[in-house]
Amino acid sequence: MKKLYALFLLMFSVFVFSQSCGINSYGFVKWTSNKTYTASIIVKNDYKTTVRVKYDDIMVQYEADYDVQHLDDVILKIEGTGTPVFLKGKSSYNPDTFIFRISQEGNIISGTTYDSSQVRNKLEILDSDNLDNNLALLEQFYTEKDADYPEIVKSLLYFDYTNKKKKK
Predict the structure, then answer these.
(1) Is residue 153 part of a domain?
(2) Residue 64 is part of which domain span?
(3) Would 154 be classed as within a structural domain?
(4) Closest Cα to residue 50, out of 161, 118, 147?
(5) Nearest Cα to 165, choosing from 6, 20, 1, 36?
(6) Which of 11, 113, 121, 150 could form a disulfide with 27, with the two C-beta atoms 3.0–4.6 Å apart?
(7) What are the tens digits of pLDDT across the range 128-164?
(8) 155 assigned to some structural domain
(9) Which residues form the signal peptide (predicted)?
(10) What are the respective helix, strand and coil percentages of the chain, to the nearest 5?
């Protein structure tokens, strides 16, 4: 229960981390369709969302819109709107839309993804409240050469620090 709540804060927090950090939230997910896909979702303070998806030997990046609806549960929708840019390999790719259903207490109830085919696939959340695990996930998608890398690492460190303070 605590892990899911921490995950909610980690990936979908409403508060903005420190002003010196440009990343609002982030998350890592996995799903299987005709292939196994993993994705990194980065939401900046201005709610500009960047998604990187890996499958086979291919990595694609696209921009996405971020929307939150408060119903009986919280519905978070991250809709792929940008044109995919292939960072590694070449193929065809339709941007995905991610939908997360989150309880009012902050627990992730379910997550799904779909692309233009409209076939929904269940998401596996890969985040953890362990800094080393999150850094290892990050390094599957980003390197020190990426312009956003320092900001993302700073947000991981900041969340780890604030999470440890809350546990004391």
Answers:
(1) no
(2) 2-143
(3) no
(4) 147
(5) 6
(6) 11
(7) 677 888 899 999 999 999 988 888 888 888 877 776 6
(8) no
(9) 1-18
(10) 25, 40, 40
Query: Cα–Cα distances in Å, from 54 out to 8, 57, 112, 141, 143?
Result: 23, 7, 17, 8, 14
Q: 131-138 vs 149-167: helix axis angle to the nearest 10?
A: 160
**What pLDDT, on the 0 to 100 scale, is given for residue 107?**
66
User: How many residues appear in the chain?
Assistant: 168
The DSSP secondary-structure symbol of 84 reads: P
Closest by CA to 86, choosing from 110, 61, 69, 63, is 61
Indicate the pTM of the whole model. Answer: 0.80
- Tokens representing 133 are 């695990």
Q: What's the mean pLDDT in 35-50?
A: 87
Of 51 and 23, the structure prediction assigns the larger pLDDT to 51
- Dig out the tokens for 29 from the structure: 């997910």
Angle at 55 between CA 46 and CA 24, to 5 degrees: 15
Domain count, the chain: 1
Contact predicate 53/93, CB 8 Å? yes
Q: Does any domain span residue 130?
A: yes
The pLDDT tens digits of the residues spanning 72-104 come to 778 888 999 889 999 999 998 999 999 988 877
